[in-house]
Design brief:
Length: about 260
């Protein structure tokens, strides 16, 4: 049994749910993401949160998959100050709703001042509510983005054990693990890492504070990345207990920190 702790089912077909349950994925966590073009108003972001909380959760349930979501103003959207501030003014109302288990994904895209303000405000909000946080790391200047992320975590006095620093690569995994946070690795063709590269990182750094996710969306991506990583781990000599710990118990234990998460 697997958990995918970061997947964007909004952009996937219903057939994907069938393949996922047949492959052993029992639970998914869906963070708020950028839809691919600029929004025209905060109302469309609010509609999107409503969609995740209601329709997507029901769609997953039809296939026996538990669906939870994380609510946020995405880093790209943070650069539209009016949209970001209007959305943040009402976001707290959504964080207590059934199925909302985290704030995310937040963080940096282009590492701008506007992104920093919105990032910090959401981090404080999560801390006040004692909610887990999923932090996106930028595609470019990733090391700089992670260093700046840790400065903000420190300035906001956020609880590190409730934080995932996501989308790590060979360049950043050691830096992320040097702090008391959970490090996410996204197995995603072309723009992130392959299952072979992910397993090579596991060989070097262990499985204790790492989560594996697909981040599958409307790009060339794979909602079966988590079970395919299990196959690669088995090929490379990891035990069944190690695979189960990484791909089920680690995300299950992390999201137990949310009062809205029902552990398996």
């Amino acid at each position: 049994m697997f958990i995918d702790p970061h997947v964007h089912m909004y952009s996937r077909t219903t057939d994907d749910y069938e393949k996922m349950i047949l492959s052993g994925i029992k639970t998914v966590i869906e963070p708020s993401f950028w839809l691919g073009q600029a929004r025209t108003s905060s109302k469309t972001l609010i509609d999107y949160w409503e969609y995740l909380i209601n329709f997507e959760r029901a769609r997953a349930r039809e296939f026996g998959i538990n669906h939870y979501c994380a609510i946020s103003v995405n880093p790209k959207e943070a650069n539209n100050s009016q949209l970001a501030n209007e959305s943040l003014d009402v976001m707290a109302n959504y964080l207590s709703k059934e199925g909302v288990v985290a704030v995310g994904e937040i963080g940096f895209d282009m590492i701008t001042k506007e992104e920093e303000k919105v990032f910090a405000r959401q981090l404080v909000m999560a801390e006040e509510l004692k909610m887990p946080v999923i932090i996106h790391t930028p595609h470019i200047n990733k090391v700089e983005g992670i260093k700046k992320t840790f400065d903000i975590i420190k300035n906001c006095n956020a609880t590190k054990s409730r934080i995932i620093i996501d989308h790590n690569t060979e360049e950043t995994i050691e830096l992320s693990l040097s702090y008391d946070v959970i490090a996410g690795i996204t197995v995603y063709p072309y723009t992130k890492v392959s299952s072979i590269r992910a397993v090579n990182m596991l060989k070097k750094y262990g499985t204790d504070r790492i989560l594996i996710n697909s981040s599958a969306d409307w790009g060339v991506s794979d909602p079966l990345s988590v079970p395919k990583t299990a196959i690669q781990m088995e090929k490379d000599g990891f035990s069944k207990n190690e695979i189960e710990q990484l791909l089920f118990h680690n995300p299950n234990n992390f999201f137990k920190q949310s009062k809205n998460y029902v552990p398996l």
